[in-house]
Specification:
Structural class: alpha/beta
Distance between the termini: 17 Å
Radius of gyration: 20 Å
Strand order of the largest sheet: 4-3-2-1-5-8
CATH superfamily of the largest domain: Ribonuclease H-like superfamily/Ribonuclease H
Order of helices and strands: HHEEEHEHEHEEEHH
Strand content: 15-25%
CATH class of the largest domain: Alpha Beta
Length: about 190
């Protein structure tokens, strides 16, 4: 049973105040609210994350979030470091700006963190999904804007590292090693199941 169905049933139980009805509600088939939608709406939005960085443990170069539904994608690149790893110079840097003009932003770290917070602000329960731990590490590090300071994600968020064995975002991406296109490929892979 989906967690939103359980939550809806527990809310109904709380409204009725009958502990005996909890077992009935949890065993009964889910009742959908009448609407024009063919599927129940999830209580949270999933965002698919990809980052590009300057080699193992290197500086964050770009970050992208692609929502599960809709076309309001997020992309930001950061100032390049003085020394760029040769592989990154060849496979990542030439493609950093291959994104739609409306979202092609280059910002400093603090501004990028604030931009992430503003992008996610309208969602009170965002879930950030990645297929690589370093993507999550860079994303979380970006949100730290100074000693004891964090970008305005005071609404909270959840992080999920998925098992994407056999999947390569770069191999399935329209523009390999571009965070936005790789995040789109991850979304398509995840939603294909």
């Amino acid at each position: 049973m989906a967690s939103f169905q359980i939550i809806a049933r527990l809310v109904a139980w709380a409204a009725h105040g009958s502990l005996a009805s909890v077992a009935q509600m949890l065993q009964a088939p889910a009742v959908r609210a009448s609407s024009d939608y063919s599927q129940a709406v999830s209580p949270f939005m999933r965002y698919f994350l990809d980052t590009e960085f300057n080699g193992f443990g290197g500086t964050l170069l770009s970050v992208a979030l692609v929502p599960e539904h809709g076309d309001q994608e997020f992309y930001v690149s950061l100032p390049l470091p003085d020394d760029i790893e040769p592989w990154v110079a060849k496979h990542v840097i030439p493609y950093l700006r291959h994104v739609p003009p409306g979202i092609d932003l280059e910002l400093g770290r603090v501004e990028a963190a604030d931009h992430v917070a503003a992008y996610l602000e309208g969602d009170d329960d965002p879930v950030i999904i990645a297929d690589w731990p370093e993507d999550l590490a860079h994303f979380c590090a970006l949100l730290v804007t100074g000693p004891g300071k964090m970008a305005g994600v005071d609404f909270g968020l959840r992080l999920e590292l998925i098992n994407a064995a056999g999947f390569s975002a770069a191999a399935n991406s329209r523009v390999p090693h571009n965070a936005l296109h790789d995040a789109r490929a991850l979304r398509d892979f995840y939603l294909a199941d």
